[in-house]
Amino acid sequence: MVTPKHVCVIGAGVSGLAAAKAFSNRGHRVAIVERSSDLGGVWEPARSYPEVQTQSPKELYRYTDRAMPDGYPEWPTGPQVHAYLADYARSFGLDRMLRLDTEVAGMARRADGKPGWTLALKSKDGASTHEDFDFVAVCTGQFNEPRELHCPGEDAFLAQGGQILHSSKYCDPSLAKDRRVVVLGGSKSATDIAVNAVKSGAREVTIVMREPVWRIPYFIGGLVNFKRILYIRAQEEMFPGWGMSAMGRLAHRIAAPLVWANWRGLESLLKAQLKLGRCNMVPKERIEDGVNCSVPIATPGFYPMVADGRINAVFGTFDHYDGDNIVMSGGERVGADVAVLAIGYKLGVPFLPEAYRQKLVDADGQYRLYRLIANPDLPELGFVGFNSSFCTVLCADLAANWLVRYADGQLAKQPTAQQMRDNIEMMLHFKRVERPAAGVYGGLCVAPYHYRHFDELMADIGAKNQKRGGLAGRFQPPDADAYAKFLATAPDYRAA
Known about the structure:
Layout: E1 6-10, H1 14-25, E2 29-33, H2 78-91, E3 98-99, E4 102-109, E5 117-123, E6 128-133, E7 135-138, E8 145-146, H3 154-159, E9 163-166, E10 180-184, H4 188-199, E11 204-209, E12 219-220, E13 224-225, H5 227-230, H6 233-236, H7 246-274, H8 302-307, E14 312-315, E15 318-322, E16 325-328, E17 333-335, E18 338-341, E19 345-346, H9 354-360, E20 381-383, H10 392-408, H11 417-434, H12 450-461, H13 470-474, H14 480-488
Parallel strand pairs: 1-2, 1-7, 2-3, 7-20, 9-18, 10-11, 10-18, 11-14
Antiparallel strand pairs: 4-5, 5-6, 8-19, 12-13, 15-16, 16-17
């Protein structure tokens, strides 16, 4: 027998909706706490910059139980994704669980001695309440709290009419018209905003990044959808994984020349297609050494605009502001009216008590999470959406299905606390020593090991069918419909 729980889901984005549905489907009472005035997380209209669209094709950016509308383009826009999420919430009654404009100000173990947590909740008008929950799912993800960057001279820059804003606040393209726009960052949001500024009539556009990085076009060679090259099991197996046997390591050594040729061929193709040499943007790093969640999609038009001078690319970072100029770390001065900081978001769970944060995050910023979902030393607590990837929605969906079973003790392979700790240590060693690129974003990235991660979750859940077999299965990207069928083969239960 599984006893119904009162569950708090923190965050109403992609991950929060997945967690709320998974727990409510199993008979638990769910409250979704969201500090914003709308659901959607990064796809909330108030947080979306102009012309934003998914990096992943819509077949990879969806829940297992709801496809995106047929009328959507292959790479849906921000408003389309938000509409999809809102429809998902309405269809499954998740909208009735929402508590918008409600922030988690803190949490502590329940004082009555029962399992669970007491959450301090603060409404938009400042009123505070405390509420007990039997289980808490943290679904704030990695794009929650914008990073800040303060440099000497910024007060004077602002006083003489300059503007400094995070990329999440670049919501009105008229902001760029007839002005000198400087974008700091090398992510897709940075290149998207730089291109948008050019299209919006900016007088000058400069993008500042530390160094060139590999970017993947939507169609490699202009013909092949990148999902059919980078998101297939066969390509994933070219990367040495964790916990490899001696035979597995031997096989990788034997195949090393072919694997090397594969990556050099891809690099050559990208250099030619994107004209990286002409743009002076050939990365120094080998592409296979840096494949992770930070590899961005090439914004259409970005490289041509760099090549013809409509976008000026500077390598370095901001050092200080001087009047209406920004001085770079290399000494270059760039005139600016608007500085857009596309520098990402802070990782963290600020409402978690410090003693528990120390159990969750090591000194070097690496997260201690089994399957990137749970920590044995944080009882009645789990994380959904911390298993970041280009298949963000599918990752969150499968993590949510894993977490509810873990919370209910219903995993087919329910781990002991010691098994979880041993696995966490093994994975941390892999990320720190064997593949440092896996340590990006605090180690909360499953790319390029999507299939390996999904296989582990499916096996833990007890799905009788866990993967598509045969040659076709090795050369197909992840399929949400297929995983819906795999989940249907797992043992069923309901809290009562």
